[in-house]
Automatic annotation (TrEMBL):
Species the sequence originates in: Pseudoroseomonas ludipueritiae
Primary residence: membrane
The protein's name: DUF1232 domain-containing protein
Transmembrane segments: 30-50, 56-77, 97-121
Alphabetized UniProt keyword annotations: Membrane, Transmembrane, Transmembrane helix
Length: 126
């Protein structure tokens, strides 16, 4: 059961990436682009139908509303365009992840935070 849920979640993630690629494709109709943009805006917006800070209920709108809306957006994109962008999204997911690159980015952020603290410390002591 968990494997099936995990596989479905990965497929939805791939499809969302494919939708973002299809939204930039000139072969995609304007209404499909607009709908995909609206779904992405809702998913990323801090304003939800049910606020996320409410335990359990807060994520129900994402769990119940977003998957059917994503499926509707997929149906609005021409099938050949969606198939092409699904393949591109799958290729991106197969690329190896650079742990060294991630470590470098984290190190840069930590250095920036340390430099900011070092610069602010004398001003905060006053």
């Amino acid at each position: 059961m968990w494997r099936r849920i995990r596989n479905r979640a990965r497929a939805i993630g791939r499809d969302v990436h494919a939708l973002s690629l299809a939204a930039r494709d000139p072969r995609t109709p304007w209404y499909a682009k607009a709908f995909a943009l609206a779904i992405a805006a809702y998913a990323l917006s801090p304003i939800d139908l049910i606020p996320d800070f409410i335990p359990v209920l807060g994520y129900l709108d994402e769990v119940i509303l977003l998957p059917p809306l994503i499926l509707l957006a997929i149906r609005l994109v021409p099938p050949e365009v969606m198939a092409e962008h699904r393949a591109a999204a799958a290729r991106v997911r197969e690329r190896p992840v650079s742990r060294a690159g991630a470590a470098l980015i984290v190190a840069i952020w930590l250095l920036a935070a340390a430099a900011l603290l070092w610069w602010l410390w004398p001003h905060a002591a006053r």
